Amino acid sequence: MKRLFDFVVAFLGLAVTSPVLIVFMTLVFLQDFRSPIYMAPRVGRGGRHFTILKLRSMIVDADKSGIDSTSKNDPRITRVGQVIRNYKLDELTQLWNVLVGTMSLVGPRPQVHRDVDLYTEAEKGLLAIKPGITDFSSIVFSDEGAILAEAEDVDLEYSRLIRPWKSRLGLFYIENASLWLDIKLAWLTILVLISKKSALRSVARQLEKLGAPDELIRIARRETKLVPCPPPGSDEIVTFRTMG
């Protein structure tokens, strides 16, 4: 049923949003006359590599900088790219990945191999299912760029502030995955673009119903400032990028 749900939603989603995608693909192309689609290598289920399709929001060859995380003030983001990121339009092209079966609509977000190489044994559990376009963490940390805006080392700050909870939320989703939960998270992903506060309250309520730890519910509400925390499966806060 999950695969059928994914296929139907992805097909309808691409059909409905294709006019918007065509407009922005044209705008991206007119910036530098290069491909508006970025073919991004990612790690999927079972550690297998695949290519994710993204509407390009950065300058050409932005990945050669060696920086994987992106702050709101990242100079690599183009003017059109800012709009694309603000409205999550780069995720619409990923519906193609869902359509062909390399991704699911809902599941832990796929990571670059450098980040997966740093996973703790507990975090490797995130590779048990297909990665998704959205999940609990996509809603809770939809403002990831703003969180990292003032960071001197965005990859390190991501590993200290966001990764610990993103991984925990992903693992919690895997433990409680169901078609009904997928439907709820798909709706909340749309709601976060309209009212982030309402979406966060709904996520917190859903986590409560599923018996999530109090600390995870507190983070989902995003009412307190994020502080450095160890990733799941470790007692140590990451102090440099190469630390697992």
Report on this model:
The protein has one domain (2-221). The chain is globular, with a radius of gyration of 17 Å. Helix 8 (179-194) runs antiparallel to helix 9 and helix 9 (196-209) runs antiparallel to helix 10 (214-221). The chain has ten helices and four strands, in the order αββααβαβαααααα. Helix content is 49%, strand content 8%. Strand 1 and strand 2 form a beta hairpin. The strands form two sheets. A two-stranded antiparallel ribbon has the order 1-2. The chain has a two-stranded parallel ribbon with strand order 3-4. By secondary structure, the protein is mainly alpha-helical.
Specify the number of helices: 10
Question: Which descriptor suits the 3D outline?
Answer: globular
- In sequence order, what are the helices and strands, one letter per element? HEEHHEHEHHHHHH
Biggest sheet: strands side by side, in what order? 1-2
The structural domain count equals 1
User: How does the major sheet shape up?
Assistant: 2 strands, antiparallel
Oligomer: single chain
Distance between the termini: 36 Å
Question: What is the tally of beta strands?
Answer: 4
* Binned strand content: 5-15%
- pLDDT below 50 for ≥5 consecutive residues: which ranges? none
